[in-house]
């Protein structure tokens, strides 16, 4: 076929320099994540990624066999569990961990992913999405446990329920207002754990 004659076989194509290949991979992943966060997993296709990234489909197929591999790679890129920075007080540690949840829901995975998980349109994706959210939620739970151990929070606190309320408050704010303010994490910690807030320095 004529179309086949126009495509150079992979074996005859010169291997791009490492820097070029890395840039291409980054463009592919950025495009896949952008589609995922806005539209959900069902819209992550080779054609859509090629159109948004500007990378030719033939180049994408050299790296990924199909859309499932692209989607798996996009999810894997978000699966790293964040580490809480040293030197933060308990209140600031809570705020920092909530910001990681905020990033996952708002920019890393996006509300398109949230919608897909809520409708369970793709069970495999839903499972992967929950693993990512739970990994970041576990960091929040760890901070709360440390606060309980330190006596900063009451000892009978139900950690799992508290984490669900903290994470759910983001979705609640978005559903009510259509956006979430930059002060969301601070407001949530102040409302739920006011005893953690540092005292104002004396003048």
Automatic annotation (TrEMBL):
Residues 45-64 bind DNA. It holds the Pfam family TetR_N. Residues 1-24 are annotated as: Disordered. The keyword Transcription regulation applies. One of its GO terms (molecular function) is DNA-binding transcription factor activity. Residues 22-82 form the HTH tetR-type domain. The keyword DNA-binding applies. InterPro entries: Homeodomain-like_sf, HTH-type_TetR-like_transc_reg, HTH_TetR, Tet_transcr_reg_TetR-rel_C_sf, TetR_C. Coiled coil: none annotated. Keywords: DNA-binding, Transcription, Transcription regulation. This is Tetr family transcriptional regulator. It comes from Rhodococcus coprophilus. The gene is fadR_3.
């Amino acid at each position: 076929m004529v179309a086949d004659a126009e495509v150079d076989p992979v074996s005859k194509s010169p291997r791009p320099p490492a820097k070029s290949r890395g840039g291409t991979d980054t463009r592919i992943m950025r495009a896949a994540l952008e589609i995922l966060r806005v539209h959900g997993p069902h819209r992550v296709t080779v054609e859509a990624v090629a159109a948004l990234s500007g990378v030719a489909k033939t180049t994408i197929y050299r790296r990924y066999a199909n859309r499932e591999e692209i989607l798996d790679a996009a999810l894997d890129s978000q699966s790293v569990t964040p580490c809480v920075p040293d030197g933060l007080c308990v209140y600031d540690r809570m705020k920092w961990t909530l910001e990681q949840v905020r990033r996952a829901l708002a920019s890393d995975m996006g509300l398109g992913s949230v919608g897909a998980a809520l409708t369970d349109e793709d069970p495999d994706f839903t499972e992967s999405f929950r693993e990512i959210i739970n990994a970041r939620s576990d960091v929040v739970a760890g901070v709360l446990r440390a606060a309980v151990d330190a006596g900063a929070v009451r000892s009978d606190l139900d950690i799992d329920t508290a984490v669900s309320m903290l994470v759910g408050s983001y979705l609640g704010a978005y559903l009510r207002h259509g956006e979430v303010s930059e002060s969301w994490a601070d407001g949530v910690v102040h409302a739920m754990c006011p005893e953690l807030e540092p005292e104002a320095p004396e003048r």
